[in-house]
Automatic annotation (TrEMBL):
The lineage of its organism: Bacteria, Bacillati, Actinomycetota, Actinomycetes, Kitasatosporales. One of its GO terms (molecular function) is DNA-binding transcription factor activity. Keywords: DNA-binding. Residues 66-85 bind DNA. Residues 1-34 are annotated as: Disordered. Signal peptide: none annotated. It comes from Streptomyces fuscichromogenes. It holds the Pfam family TetR_N. This is HTH tetR-type domain-containing protein. InterPro entries: Homeodomain-like_sf, HTH-type_TetR-like_transc_reg, HTH_TetR.
């Protein structure tokens, strides 16, 4: 019997048919001696197991799913699963961390824009929508498992805060982007932009909230540009 262990809080979502492409968004292979190749193979197996977990947990509850089910879905042995994860709760932990990593990659892309303009923010949202759709199945699975898997509230809070501090740090750098705005205000505006983006995409994509507007991202772009106003530039500047 798999032993649930303490795990942090997940980012949220509801059940649906999985699209696990977000779990295949792997970094390029490492270069170097044979040991690096083994590490790369281990990482690929790790991601393969996470992808299999999303499929299994979409079909079965956290309680009913077995490590054997995950092994079968991944096409590996049960021993391989246990070599990566002591139990199901640790797999959920890894899925939660995967979501945070994917979101950090999204905000890094926004931060990397030379200038923030209305057109630039809108283009970023188009790409971000694709990323959120890729990660939505993971969010649904972690949310469904949360009531059953034991977790530490303090650890979950710490994980959430640490991740969002990274997001804010990305958006407030470089400081000259904010044209002399008070650093505290810049930090709050960055946090508000992050939270609005996450909450909107979570409701619209992960939960499936129906929207009647022809272009849902237009209003979101307008709102984000207002929040980030001190750091925005005109499109023709």
């Amino acid at each position: 019997m798999d032993r649930p262990t303490a795990r942090p809080a997940d980012p949220g979502g509801t059940a649906a048919t999985p699209d696990t492409s977000a779990l295949r968004n792997d970094s390029p292979p490492e270069h170097g001696p044979r040991v690096n190749l083994r590490l790369q193979q281990k990482r690929l197996t790790h991601l393969r197991l996470l992808e299999a977990t999303v499929k299994v947990f979409t079909e079965k509850s956290f309680v009913d799913a077995r490590m054997e089910d995950i092994a079968q879905a991944a096409g590996v042995t049960r021993a391989t699963v246990y070599a990566h994860f002591p139990g199901k709760a640790e797999i959920i932990d890894a899925l939660v961390e995967r979501v945070y990593t994917l979101m950090e990659e999204a905000y890094a892309e926004l931060a990397a824009l030379p200038r923030w303009t209305q057109a630039g923010v809108r283009a970023w949202l188009d790409d971000a929508e694709t990323r959120w759709r890729d990660m939505a199945p993971i969010r649904r699975v972690t949310n469904a498992a949360a009531p059953t898997a034991l977790r530490s509230v303090d650890a979950g809070r710490a994980q959430y805060v640490k991740a969002h501090e990274r997001y804010v740090g990305l958006l407030i750098s470089p400081s000259d982007r904010w044209r002399g705005a008070d650093p505290a205000e810049a930090g709050q505006r960055a946090l508000m932009a992050v939270l609005q983006t996450e909450s909107f995409f979570s409701a619209w994509i992960a939960v499936g909230w129906p929207l009647a507007t022809a272009d849902p991202l237009r209003l979101l772009a307008d709102s984000l540009c207002h929040i980030l106003a001190p750091a925005m530039r005109e499109d023709d500047e």
